């Protein structure tokens, strides 16, 4: 029986890709905190998940089964953040929020990496018998 890497990693590899992309967007927000008319951006995991799930084709074996389509219309990918206190120059970056989001994203990246590392370690042990 063959084991595919996609199945073995259980999505942790995709989570790392998302966390890396989100870190880049948040770092860009922090770097542009003093740029006039800069609009803060963020990536939505829900939008990414709905984009990925729309690629799946679910099989229905009964007419009473629910369809696999999404019911919400959230845009996919990068979204602009609604400012709580926009500045006079049109910049919508809130440094405290950006730093907190970046720190939280960093912790979530570390957690995903730890899970992926443990998956790989488990696969190595299964292959070597140690």
Q: How would you explain this protein's 3D organization?
A:
The protein starts with a helix and ends with a helix. Helix 2 (12-31) runs antiparallel to helix 4 (95-128). It has helices spanning 5-9, 12-31, 45-53, 95-128, and strands at residues 41-43, 78-80. Residues 69-75 have low confidence and may be disordered. It has a two-stranded antiparallel sheet with strand order 1-2. The chain has one domain. The radius of gyration is 20 Å and the shape is flat. The chain is mainly α and 130 residues long.
Overall geometry comes to: flat
Strand content: under 5%
Which regions have little confidence, pLDDT < 50, spanning 5+ residues? Answer: 69-75
Biggest sheet, in brief? 2 strands, antiparallel
Number of domains: 1
The sequence of SSEs as H and E is HHEHEH
Q: Please report the total strand number as a whole number.
A: 2
Instruction: Tell me the helix content.
Output: 40-55%
User: Distance N terminus to C terminus?
Assistant: 21 Å
- Number of helical elements: 4
Strand order of the largest sheet: 1-2
Family: Belongs to the flagella basal body rod proteins family.
Pfam family, one: Flg_bb_rod
Organism: Marinomonas hwangdonensis
Function: Structural component of flagellum, the bacterial motility apparatus. Part of the rod structure of flagellar basal body.
């Amino acid at each position: 029986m063959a084991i595919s890497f996609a199945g073995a990693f259980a999505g942790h590899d995709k989570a790392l890709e998302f966390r890396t992309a989100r870190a880049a967007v948040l770092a860009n927000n922090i770097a542009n905190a003093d740029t006039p008319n800069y609009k803060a951006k963020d990536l939505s995991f829900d939008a990414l998940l709905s984009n990925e799930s729309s690629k799946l084709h679910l099989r229905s074996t009964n007419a009473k089964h629910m369809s696999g389509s999404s019911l919400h219309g959230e845009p996919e990918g990068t979204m602009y953040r609604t400012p709580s206190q926009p500045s006079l120059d049109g910049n919508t970056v809130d440094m405290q929020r950006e730093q907190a989001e970046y720190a939280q994203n960093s912790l979530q990246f570390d957690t995903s990496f730890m899970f992926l590392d443990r998956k790989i370690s488990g696969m190595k042990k299964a292959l070597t018998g140690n």
